[in-house]
């Protein structure tokens, strides 16, 4: 087993979060990512068929690691004392009464296609677990709740064809794990060498590939005899899926940005993950996750945001406009957030520290009600003023937007039925 490491992010707790890609080998001379797994037999097959028939909408989940400052992005407080309001000024959007940060001019021009929830209560921990699963890391460490994308994978892997249901463009993390759904529903995590593994090995023709597949079948007959646990059945599915993906080339083509029109590629220069996400969604992926920037700004908060906010602005504006131009706005829901907000009061290092009492979440598409802000924080941005909401409220809304009932249950390792979310009420103001 080989492990390919990506970029590392070191946060204030001293821990390093490093994206990684594990590459495993199987027969037929092909090497594919460990994330290329398919469904295995489970007690939830009936639920899978029922849910899978509800539609095939998709989700893009954008994670801002480190905790972005709500006060300097979507919830500015121009009337607050200087030590709270910070350096940035609000600008008007194309929706009357809604203002956002001056470093978001592109989003301001298209706010009728966007919405923001400004009253989300979070927890103080550097982990994507809460926003990707609905449960904080300290709970997930024992309960093993699955990520949003893994739930999509579980419900749709049977009809995914030549594409994996769940793709992570930011590697593996605690929040991308499948938990009790099993490793078959880990994300496909392309990157670097992983992309090269989505093609036939050197010198292997389609004819030779079929010969090798037949040879594999003979080996499998023997291997099944020594494996009665069901593990081999999962590996058979994995091998079958890998073969299908290699020969079809759908994902490989989606990841090849050279196939995009040069003018479009230029618009996404420096923010290519947003373009890749859109291309993957067009290829039929059910859930794509990506991340951008580093937001643990205990010091020099405004300097860091001056560099990062324009990139986020271009990424969101290009992505959402492209989806609209392709008529996909109601079929794709996008959510962008981090693990918590940041302190309303600027510290002595011109930074903002962790702040779990309130944060913001950007939402777009999925047939939800756009052109608004939902909820409000207090005059200094310290806590929800009205409509306090939790991360599961937002996740429940996103699940519903793509046709998944968050009250569905799956058996955990002990056979106990577990809800996808314990808190399942949606954000009613967003429901179209």
UniProtKB/TrEMBL annotation:
<dbReference type="Pfam" id="PF07394">
    <property type="entry name" value="DUF1501"/>
</dbReference>
<dbReference type="InterPro" id="IPR006311">
    <property type="entry name" value="TAT_signal"/>
</dbReference>
<dbReference type="InterPro" id="IPR017850">
    <property type="entry name" value="Alkaline_phosphatase_core_sf"/>
</dbReference>
<protein>
    <submittedName>
        <fullName>DUF1501 domain-containing protein</fullName>
    </submittedName>
</protein>
<dbReference type="InterPro" id="IPR010869">
    <property type="entry name" value="DUF1501"/>
</dbReference>
């Amino acid at each position: 087993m080989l492990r390919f490491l990506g970029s590392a992010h070191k946060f204030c707790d001293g821990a390093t979060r490093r994206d990684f890609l594990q590459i495993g080998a199987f027969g037929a001379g092909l090497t594919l990512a460990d994330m290329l797994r398919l469904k295995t037999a489970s007690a939830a097959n009936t639920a899978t068929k029922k849910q899978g028939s509800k539609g095939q909408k998709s989700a893009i989940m954008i994670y801002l690691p480190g905790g972005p400052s709500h006060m300097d992005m979507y919830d500015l407080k121009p009337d607050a004392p200087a030590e709270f309001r910070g350096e940035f000024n609000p600008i008007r959007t194309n929706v009357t009464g809604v203002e956002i940060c001056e470093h978001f001019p592109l989003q301001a021009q298209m706010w009728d296609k966007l919405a923001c929830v400004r009253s989300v209560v979070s927890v103080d921990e550097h982990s994507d677990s809460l926003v990707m699963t609905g449960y904080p890391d300290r709970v997930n460490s024992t309960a093993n709740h699955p990520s949003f994308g893994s739930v999509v994978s579980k419900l749709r892997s049977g009809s995914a064809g030549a594409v994996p249901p769940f793709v992570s463009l930011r590697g593996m993390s605690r929040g991308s794990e499948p938990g009790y759904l099993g490793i078959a529903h880990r994300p496909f995590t392309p990157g670097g060498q992983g992309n090269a593994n989505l093609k036939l090995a050197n010198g292997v023709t389609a004819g030779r590939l079929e010969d090798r597949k037949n040879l594999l079948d003979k080996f499998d007959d023997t291997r099944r005899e020594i494996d009665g646990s069901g593990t081999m059945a999962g590996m058979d599915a994995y091998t079958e899926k890998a073969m299908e993906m290699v020969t079809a080339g759908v994902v490989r083509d989606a990841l090849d940005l050279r196939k995009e029109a040069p003018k479009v590629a230029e618009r996404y220069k420096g923010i290519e993950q947003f373009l890749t996400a859109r291309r993957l969604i067009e290829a039929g992926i059910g859930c794509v996750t990506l991340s951008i920037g580093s937001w643990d700004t205990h010091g020099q908060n405004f300097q860091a945001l001056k560099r990062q906010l324009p990139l986020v602005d271009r990424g969101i504006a290009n992505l959402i406009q492209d989806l609209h131009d392709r008529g996909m706005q109601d079929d794709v829901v996008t959510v962008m957030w981090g693990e918590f907000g940041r302190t309303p009061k600027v510290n002595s290092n011109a930074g903002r520290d962790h702040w779990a009492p309130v944060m913001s979440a950007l939402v777009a598409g999925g047939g939800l009600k756009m052109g608004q802000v939902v909820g409000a924080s207090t005059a200094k941005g310290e806590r929800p003023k009205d409509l306090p909401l939790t991360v599961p409220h937002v996740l429940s809304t996103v699940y519903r937007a793509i046709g998944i009932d968050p009250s569905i249950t799956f058996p955990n390792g002990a056979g106990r039925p577990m809800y996808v979310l314990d808190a399942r009420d949606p954000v009613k103001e967003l429901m179209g």
